[in-house]
Amino acid sequence: MKPSIVIADDHPLMLRGLSDFIESKGYSILGRAEDGQAAYNLIVKHKPRHCYSRY
């Protein structure tokens, strides 16, 4: 099983592009957030193995 990931970025194009790329490699994205608070909430809720964030 590949690691689960949460992604956070305030730029919609970057968020979508990174999500598409990561999913194309077979990884599971548990959530996407557009701000730091939403990212924190996703991390607490899902407890992903990795998180990409620009915050």
From TrEMBL:
Entry-linked SUPFAM superfamilies: CheY-like (SSF52172)
Gene3D superfamilies: 3.40.50.2300
Source domain of life: Bacteria
Record domain Response regulatory: where: 4-55
InterPro entries: CheY-like_superfamily, Sig_transdc_resp-reg_receiver
GO biological process, any: phosphorelay signal transduction system
Protein's UniProt name: Response regulator
Lineage, top ranks: Bacteria, Pseudomonadati, Bacteroidota, Flavobacteriia, Flavobacteriales
